[in-house]
Amino acid sequence: MNTKKVWFITGASKGLGLTLTKKLLLQGYNVASTSRNKQSLIKEIGEENEKFLPIEMDLTENENVKKAIETTISHFGRIDVLVNNAGYSQIGTLEELSEKEVEDNFKVNVFGSLNVIRNATQYLRKQKSGHIFNIASIGGYTGNFAGFGIYCSTKFAVAGFTEALAEEMKAFGVYTTIVYPGYFRTDFLSKGSVKTPNNPIEEYKSAREMEQAHLKEIDGNQPNDPEKGAEVLITLNEQENPPVHFFMGEDAHHYANLKIDTIQEALEESRTLGTSTGFKK
Fold it and tell me: Rounded to the nearest 5°, which phi and psi values hold at 96?
């Protein structure tokens, strides 16, 4: 492993970002980690030193992100691996979520990631090397979960622009991987990483049941180990040709295969009607 590489990780004060930061530092890598609260990084990981750079960054403010990237370049001289990990889940049906609740989720999960990409790729492009990880969710590949439409749509957006980004950066020797994690046993379902609707409509019984299942039954019982997930990301980065799409966890593979089967069946069932729109030859 090339432990001289510099990793830049957003949302690193908890969850998979925190686990990944700790594991990288233990293995000798250089790591710049960001959070809305720098003290939370220092509390969890430690003070700034030659190998570790904690940065306070508001993902939704482009100039703030630009400054964080410049600070990292000034400290380490380069960025080799970018991990767009920050985000949160906004639970709620499409009817009950307000315009602001929806916008806020998109500002962090979608526009925040774009702010990081926009300010970091100029360095990766010029150095003609690097690897961008955009952390989505299995909910960014299959979205049929009642009460999770907005969260899933933000992750679908991340998947969509990552496919284009992979093509755009290929010519510069920069790899791009979209990661679709299943459920990892982190504090994603607690400690501010999940928000419920401000004005719930109780008639949405399936959405309420799904919400309660996540907050009371799934939280603490997620099937995947974040330590292993972090190690997998490090291994992916060391591959000669890392994939554009990567599903992480047995549950992620299960739901992805269900979606693929559903789409294949839909294509076959409607093939005649669906392909009847062309001009006669």
Answer: -85, -15
Q: Are 36 and 14 in contact (CB under 8 A)?
A: no
CA–CA gap between residue 218 and residue 259 (Å, rounded): 22
Where on the phi/psi map is residue 176: left (φ > 0), alpha (ψ -120 to 50), or beta?
beta
Catalytic residues: 151
Q: DSSP states of the chain as a string?
A: --TT-EEEESS-SSHHHHHHHHHHHHTT-EEEEEES-HHHHHHHT-S--SSEEEEE--TT-HHHHHHHHHHHHHHHS---EEEE----EE---TTTS-HHHHHHHHIIIIIIHHHHHHHHHHHHHHHT-EEEEEE--GGGT----TT-HHHHHHHHHHHHHHHHHHHHHHTTTEEEEEEEE--BSSSTTSTTSEE--SS--TT-HHHHHHHHIIIIIITT--SB-HHHHHHHHHHHHHSSS--SEEEESHHHHHHHHHHHHHHHHHHHHTHHHHTTTSPP-
- Cα distance between residue 180 and residue 137, in whole Å: 4
Interatomic CA distance for residues 110 and 115, integer angstroms? 9
pLDDT of res. 191 = 59
**CA angle (24, 30, 33) in 5-degree steps:** 75
Contact between 106 and 154 under an 8 Å Cβ cutoff? The reply is yes
Closest CA to 211 of 189, 193, 192: 189
Rg (CA), the chain: 20
Answer with the residue of higher pLDDT: 212 or 13: 13
39-60 pLDDT, tens digit each: 999 999 999 999 999 999 999 9
